[in-house]
Design a protein that fits this description.
The protein is α/β, with parallel strands linked by helices and 325 residues long. The chain has eleven helices and 13 strands. Strands 3-2-1-4-5-6-11 form a seven-stranded parallel sheet, sandwiched between helices. Strands 7-10 form a two-stranded parallel sheet. α5 packs parallel to α6 and α7 runs parallel beside α9. It is globular and about 55 Å long. Bound molecules: nicotinamide-adenine-dinucleotide. The site of nicotinamide-adenine-dinucleotide has 30 residues, from α1 and β7.
Length: 325
């Protein structure tokens, strides 16, 4: 049976990161001739690519470059001749509080570079990963792709700017760009160090014998999705023709409070101690829940892993493999 990416050269910006590493695995397994990673390893890890390199050897090519630098990216695409580019490179949302312009600019600069290279014919199709963060706190629930863009952090503002920029490239130059807005992902290999999100942070604290931390009253909600489901959905969408200029949410469609996800993790990890309460983070989105009808109509069920199962798999990974940090 022909595999879906057989013979194709694929490039993944941010391929050394959490979702990116899983995407690289999946593309190589789906027959890609070459999977080219461009990552500056700001948060990415070489270990995320170890499995892919062991299984697929020379097919995996890694460039330690800045995807927002036009000359670096020109050199890479000139050498590797990608057919399709998946844009996942970013600096984590929490980086916004340390370097607001840097968080914003990273997202916009990379979109600009990839748009320019696409316009010049350097490759054929861009699968651009945006984020649910562009919507800000839900004005309507569930949130569909027409929800207004009300970014609350400079990271999200940069993502929203990148989305609008790429939409303008579709409009002006008729280039082939598909934008995907994942909601909150969790799973093996997610960064558990600086700038970490709630799931890896909580798992790590409990594994180290520390007290988990709840920010604010914990009533903030998110739509959580297991990373393998996200990668499958990205690939399923990326092989459909005629989606130029379209935007798709990816989530579970379920709304879970931060308090509830921490309590579920405590249960899964048999932790019955205290939870420490901290002041609410500024600019924390208060409510998120995806309307996934648009993607579902094309690719069927999306989040097939239940939260409890996904969290168990995640905890097992951190317990048995994890990062040596
Ligand atoms: N994880 C989530 O919950 C989530 C939710 C919504 C959207 N997304 C989007 O999905 C994509 C992947 O997210 P992730 O969780 O894997 O993030 P991640 O931080 O694990 O991966 C991002 C990767 O980009 C790299 N990077 C940063 N700046 C770069 C640059 N200038 N050039 C090249 N590489 C650079 C980092 O080193 C890292 O490896 C991002 O675009 C993110 O906005 C993620």
């Amino acid at each position: 049976m022909k595999m879906r990416f057989e013979g194709q050269n694929c490039l993944v910006t941010g391929g050394g990161g959490f979702i990116g590493g899983h995407l690289v695995d999946a593309l190589a397994s789906e027959g890609a001739a070459r999977v080219v990673v461009v990552d500056n390893f700001f948060l990415g890890k070489e270990e995320n690519l170890t499995d892919a390199k062991r299984r697929h050897g020379d097919k995996i090519r890694i460039y330690r470059e800045d995807a927002g630098d036009l000359s670096s990216m020109t050199a890479v695409v000139w050498k590797e001749a990608p057919d399709i580019v998946f844009n996942l490179a970013t600096k984590a949302l929490l980086y916004s509080f340390f370097n607001p312009p840097g968080a914003c600019r990273t997202n916009l600069d990379i979109a600009l570079v990839l748009g320019e290279l696409l316009r010049g014919g350097a490759y054929g199709r861009l699968i651009h990963l945006s984020s649910s963060e562009v919507y800000g706190t839900a004005r309507t629930v569930p949130m569909d792709e027409h929800h207004p863009l009300l970014a609350e952090t400079s990271y999200a503002a940069g993502k929203a700017a990148g989305d609008l920029l790429l939409a303008s490239y579709v409009n002006m130059f008729d280039v082939d760009i598909l934008t995907i807005r994942p909601f909150n992902n969790y799973g093996p290999r997610q960064n558990d160090g600086q700038l970490a999100a709630v799931v890896p942070l909580t798992v790590k604290r409990i594994l180290r014998g520390e007290v988990p931390v709840l920010s604010g009253d914990g009533q903030q909600t998110r739509d959580f999705m297991f990373v393998h489901d996200t990668v499958r959905a990205i690939l399923n969408l990326s092989v459909i023709d005629g989606l130029q200029g379209q935007v798709f949410n990816l989530g579970s469609g379920d709304e879970t409070s931060i308090r509830s996800i921490i309590e579920t993790l405590c249960r899964v990890m048999h932790y019955s101690g205290d939870i420490r309460h901290e002041q609410a983070r500024k600019a924390d989105v208060m409510r998120h829940c995806a309307d996934i009808a648009k993607a579902k109509a094309l690719i069927g069920d999306i989040a097939t892993t239940t939260l409890e199962d996904g969290l168990r798999k995640t905890v097992d990974w951190y317990r048995n493999v994890g990062w040596k940090t």
